[in-house]
Amino acid sequence: MNISIPPAPWQVQQWLNTPEPITLAGLRGRVVLVIAFQMLCPGCVSRGLPQALRAHSLFADSDLAVIGLHTVFEHHEAQGSRAALAAFLHEYRIGFPVGIDAPSAYGGLPQTMQAYNMQGTPTTLLIDRKGQLRLQHFGHLEDMELGAAIGRLLEQGTQG
Amino acid sequence: MNISIPPAPWQVQQWLNTPEPITLAGLRGRVVLVIAFQMLCPGCVSRGLPQALRAHSLFADSDLAVIGLHTVFEHHEAQGSRAALAAFLHEYRIGFPVGIDAPSAYGGLPQTMQAYNMQGTPTTLLIDRKGQLRLQHFGHLEDMELGAAIGRLLEQGTQG
Amino acid sequence: MNISIPPAPWQVQQWLNTPEPITLAGLRGRVVLVIAFQMLCPGCVSRGLPQALRAHSLFADSDLAVIGLHTVFEHHEAQGSRAALAAFLHEYRIGFPVGIDAPSAYGGLPQTMQAYNMQGTPTTLLIDRKGQLRLQHFGHLEDMELGAAIGRLLEQGTQG
Amino acid sequence: MNISIPPAPWQVQQWLNTPEPITLAGLRGRVVLVIAFQMLCPGCVSRGLPQALRAHSLFADSDLAVIGLHTVFEHHEAQGSRAALAAFLHEYRIGFPVGIDAPSAYGGLPQTMQAYNMQGTPTTLLIDRKGQLRLQHFGHLEDMELGAAIGRLLEQGTQG
Lengths: 160, 160, 160, 160
What we know:
The structure is a homotetramer.
Chain A: E1 12-16, H1 24-27, E2 31-37, H2 42-58, E3 64-70, H3 76-79, H4 82-91, E4 98-101, H5 111-115, E5 123-127, E6 133-138, H6 143-156
Parallel strand pairs in A: 2-3, 3-4
Antiparallel strand pairs in A: 1-4, 2-5, 5-6
Protein name (chains A, B, C, D): Alkyl hydroperoxide reductase
Domain Alkyl hydroperoxide reductase subunit C/ Thiol specific antioxidant (chains A, B, C, D): 20-134
GO molecular function (chains A, B, C, D): antioxidant activity; oxidoreductase activity
C-alpha cells in the first residue's frame, strides 16, 4: 500500500443497489474497496468490475465493503443517466452499492473524481478500518496483489 | 455450416462507420460475417465483438466483409440512441460498419432480428458469395470453428 | 498459406497412439495437420498442443488428420525416452498419433526437424489433399487463422 | 485459512536451485508458501506453478519464502530423475528452491506427501512466521484468495 491519508468526502448524486446513502463515517471499522468506473470504459468492463465482483464474493463473510463509484467524465449523453447505469448494473449482475459521482458545476471531471485527483478509470481505492485511504491505483492491479492488500488491512483491524 | 437459404432483407434505421448504406445486393460476391449485438450484452462485449474484430483484422486482405447489427430489444432508454452506440463503438474501437436494426412499430424485437428469428444476442450470420445465408448461430462460436467456416466460404468463391 | 511444395519424408523412430506406422502416402486425400513439439517446451504445452487437441475434436467428422511429431533437440535425458513421452501423452490426454522424430547420427536436431528446416517448437505444418506442404509456421498461430487455413484446404478437396 | 498445526518435517532427497538444504527451522520468522507438484501434472503446469511464480515475483521484497516440492507418485520413469526435473525447471524458468520428496521405501506416495496426507498435486501449503501450518489446499486456489491469505500472514508477523 502506498499511502495513509484521510480520504476526501464522497460527493454522490444518487445511490443504486442500496436503500440508504453510504458514507465514509458509516463504513468506519470495515475495510472498504472502491472501484471507480465508467460503464463504457473497456478496461473497467473487462477487468476492474469483474475483479470487484470476485472480491465481493470472496470476502462476503468478512468485514470488506465493496462500493462502486460511477465517475462519468466523457460520453455523458450515453452513460450519464441513472437509467443507463441501472441497465448496465442489471446486465452485468453487479449487486454491490454504486454511487453516481456528482457532476461538476463547471463540466469536466465529476466532483469526487476531482477531489481524489484520479487520472482515469478504473481507479481502485482501499480504505482501512480506521478510515484512512491506504491505496489508490489507476489501471489494473493483479488479483494476487489486491488480495494481499485486502488481507493485510483485514488483519490489521483484528489486532491491537 | 448448417443452412443455405436466401437471407431476409435488412431493415436498418441508420448506419454508423460507413458513408453509404450497406445492402445485401451490394455485398454479392463477397463473404459476409454479421454480428448481431447489443452494447449492454455482456456476452457480446466479452466474446462476440472481440471475435468480430479479430476476423476483421485477420481477413482484412480477403473478400470478407464484417458488419455489425445493433439489435436492441431491451433497455431502449440506455442503448437505444445513436449517440450511445456511437460512444460505445468509439470506446471499443469498432471500425467496421454497424447498422441500427429498425424498431418494430409494435415494440418487442426490432425488425431484422424478427425476420431472422434470432433468439438473442450475440448472433452470428455468415452469407456466401452467392448471397445465401449459410450459418446462423446464437451464442458463442469458437474461433477455430468460425475461422474454418469463413475459410470454406472464401475458398468456394474462388472455384467453379 | 505460404507455400506449396512436396513435403520431406518423415523419419520416425517409433509411433505412439497408432497400431500402424503413418506415412505421407497413406494420408493422401486427407488434409493433415502436424504439430511438431517437445514435451518440455512451455509454448507447446500451453498453446500448441491444446490447439491441436481443439482441431482434433472440432474436425473429428471431417477429413482432417492430426499428427504429433516429437522433435527432441534438447534435454534428451529428460524427454528422449518413449516412456517419458508416453507418460506425457497420458497425462495430457493426447489421443492422436505421435511419432518420435529419429535422432540424427551426429547429434543436434532430429532428422525430420532438419529435413523441414524447422526453427524450433512448436512448429505447425499443413499438408493438402494432394500431398503438398501448404503451411509451415514456427510459434503460435491464432485459432481463427489456423481454422481458416484448414477450412480452405478441406474445401479444395471437395471441388474440381 | 483452515488450520493451525505444527507441520510435519520435510523428507527431501535433494534440493535444486539452492546451495544449502532448506529446513522448516531455518525458515522460522518468515511466511512460507509451498507448492507440491509433479512436472507431468497438467494442473501444476498450467495453474499451480505459474501462480507460485507470480507470488515469488510479487512478494520478492517481503518476508515470503516460496518453495517447491517435487512429490512424484506416478510415472517415476519419466519424472523421477533429478535430470528430468532440472530440465523442467530450466524450461519453465522456475528459480525458487525445489526439493525432491524422498521416495517411500515401500513404493507409493513419497514420504513428505504421505506425512502431510496430501491427496494429489498441486497442493498448496502456507506456514506462518511462528512455524505453524495454516493452510493446506489440494487443487487450485484463486489468486485473490491466496494473496489474501499471504497478506494476512505477513501482517501477523509484524504485530504483537
